[in-house]
Write a structure and sequence with these properties.
Radius of gyration: 19 Å
Strand content: 15-25%
Bound molecules: 2-oxoglutaric acid, fe (ii) ion
Oligomer: single chain
Helix content: 25-40%
Number of helices: 9
Length: about 300
């Protein structure tokens, strides 16, 4: 049975090539990696956890006021019941919040990337989420340097493609299940992430599983203080499927854990909207399967329609 062997982040500064090889191997094998001793400060994470609990405890009407259906829920709140996994009729048992990039006043990307609403009811919310966004954005760029080394690219190859990335920090709340949920519903149905890579905090509460190519569903169970990274569809497309965007899901809790909520925080690292996704030569040389070129913005739109966040 496959398990995901944690990789120590201190290796990155000691031996970048060895870290890049370990990350690449883990991605090739499972589409996932677990990173121990990551550089995101625990106090920054704790502050967001506290703010998220206060936020999700607000009355439904207060949270609904932060919903922007016209923007495909890419910023602010998404109520229980909005998102479904691609191809699934039933919705997931979750509500969530999205913080997007804070852009300069003159940024041309303002035409596509909206501001994140300010949460007035929770005093620490805006500052705490912004700090975590920055920390994960920085860490994500370091991880992409390792990915570049693995793919035989210049170490800084991704920089100009992600420096204004349309990345989003998602705060997820899966409520307790005091009575059994409707038949066929789960916390998060089987899906693939759309973006380049996802940095996931908070998956210590059980439930996350990844679909291994041979072994079927395997548990993704980071220890306290570790961080999960997985490849998304955009990286899969860049790498002609060498780095797979692995299907994953979040199961309902076992009866003993049913009375506990689950809070997790994926950071979906995206490309700049005008970055072009096209196959990387070393991946084609390894037998990868090429797909046509597409801009990140066009690809995101296609996928948001598929998961029900945009109604065309
Ligand atoms: O909650 C989790 O652990 C994973 C969430 C997830 O896969 C997603 O929101 O895309
Ligand atoms: Fe996901």
């Amino acid at each position: 049975m496959t398990t995901i062997t944690p990789i120590d982040y201190s290796l990155w500064s000691r031996d970048p090539n060895a870290f890049a090889a370990a990350l690449g191997q883990s991605f090739v094998e499972t589409g996932f990696a677990i990173i121990d001793h990551h550089p995101v400060d625990q106090s920054v994470i704790d502050a967001v956890n506290a703010a998220a609990k206060d936020y999700f405890a607000l009355p439904e009407a207060a949270k609904k006021a932060y919903e922007d259906a016209d923007d495909g829920y890419q910023r602010g709140h998404s109520s229980f019941g909005v998102e479904n996994a691609k191809g699934r009729a039933v919705h997931d048992l979750k509500e969530f919040w999205h913080t997007g990039r804070a852009l300069d006043a003159a940024s041309p990307y303002r035409a596509i990337m909206k501001d994140t609403p300010s949460v007035t009811e929770v005093a620490s919310f805006d500052g705490a989420t912004r700090a975590l966004y920055h920390a994960l954005d920085d860490f994500g760029r370091n991880l992409m340097e390792a990915v570049a080394i693995y793919l035989e690219l210049d170490q800084n190859w991704w920089d100009s493609r992600v420096d204004n990335g349309n990345s989003i920090l998602r705060l997820l709340h899966y409520p307790p299940q005091m009575s059994p949920p409707p038949e066929g519903t789960v916390r998060a149905g089987a899906h693939e992430d759309i973006n380049l890579i996802t940095l996931l905090l908070g998956a210590e509460e059980a439930g996350l599983q990844a679909k291994h190519k041979v072994d079927g569903w395997i548990d993704v169970n980071p220890s306290q203080g570790s961080l999960v990274v997985n490849c998304g569809d955009m990286l899969q497309r860049f790498t002609a499927c060498i780095l797979p965007s692995t299907t994953h899901r979040v199961l309902n809790p076992t009866p003993e854990r049913a009375k506990f909520p689950r809070y997790s925080m994926p950071f979906f690292m995206h490309l700049n909207p005008d970055a072009v996704i096209k196959p990387i030569p070393s991946c084609l040389a390894r037998g990868g399967v090429a797909e046509p070129e597409i801009t990140a913005a066009d690809y995101l739109y296609e996928r948001l329609v598929e998961i029900g966040l945009i109604k065309p």
